[in-house]
Amino acid sequence: MSSTSTNLPDLPLPAGIRSRVIEGVNGLSVHVLEAGYGSNERPCVLLLHGFPELAYSWRKVMPVLAEAGYHVIAPDQRGYGRTTGWDASYDGSLTPFRLTNLVRDALGVVAAFGYRSVAAVVGHDFGSPVAAWCGLIRPDVFRSVVLMSAPFPGPPQMAFNFADAPLPPKRVDPVHHELASLPRPRKHYHWYYATREANDDMWRAPQGVHDFLRAYYHHKSADWKDNKPHPLKSWSATELAKLPTYYVMDLAKTMPETVAPEMPSKEAIAANTWLPDHELAVYSSEYQRNGFQGGLQWYRCGTSGAFTAELETWSGKSIDVPSCFISGKQDWGTHQRPGVFETVQTTACTRMTGVHLIDGAGHWVQQEQPGEVSRLLLQFLKTAAV
Q: Residue 3 has what pLDDT?
């Protein structure tokens, strides 16, 4: 189900942003958006989107960074949009979608443009762990890291000091059984996204892909007034059940069924300035064409545990380049994994220069509040370069 980018309509991009395809990047033809182009004498900033988004998610930030003197590159990541060369069949190999290969993709993009290092790698949502691993594995290339909406817990810990003691048994997480056993049975969206049915549920959504995405984006934004995040006490069913249903779903519901009741009114849609319908149409047309499985493969890599041993290669290592964290004040993503927001500020990153929760933004922070995100990014880039 790889995408095809031939004969597609031009994207409606702001002035100063161009769209192009770079061939031969780690087996991919990578579609990128680019601003501040024309000379690789400019310091480079790499922007990595999340799910279910695209390079297009950065359209409001890119011109500001370019105006400030940066060469800004935002790829459609593996499995997304107009990047081709990936196979997202459910029964295909997950290996190309594992985190270390996504870092290789990012490295390949900046190398293709002739950069041996970049000023910053910025990742939002599922782009955040990719950015984190970029800074962890190749700090010589990715000279600073901005994590957005998804704090980084650090690498998984390797079993330690067991030569003269029994190896601790592999722990089976009981939380999924406990969630399903609640009086109101629930399930975690990561594990739903790993099911065979999830792609078709969303691709063939009863309300159509466009209206599904509208409801999904609305539900996770500051426009949905019940988004009032707070820290959770533990990774337990009773605590996780406090999360909104887009994170901890009703057991029997699909994601389109979950968000459908939160569909904003026609008046609210018409009044939406951060994602008007003609901009949402960019996302809906790309996902109608490709489906969602390319992005869902990333979740499957995480929930399967198949690549944990590889990531344990960096057990005990921290991100030691300058870093910062940016999220919406109304974004539950900051707290969806209890304790990680604290960990990213203490042990996962050793040179975190700022933590910013932007009021008036939910999960789609660089789209909901692009001016403040741009200001914070430029402020960080200035301090990181010192």
A: 43
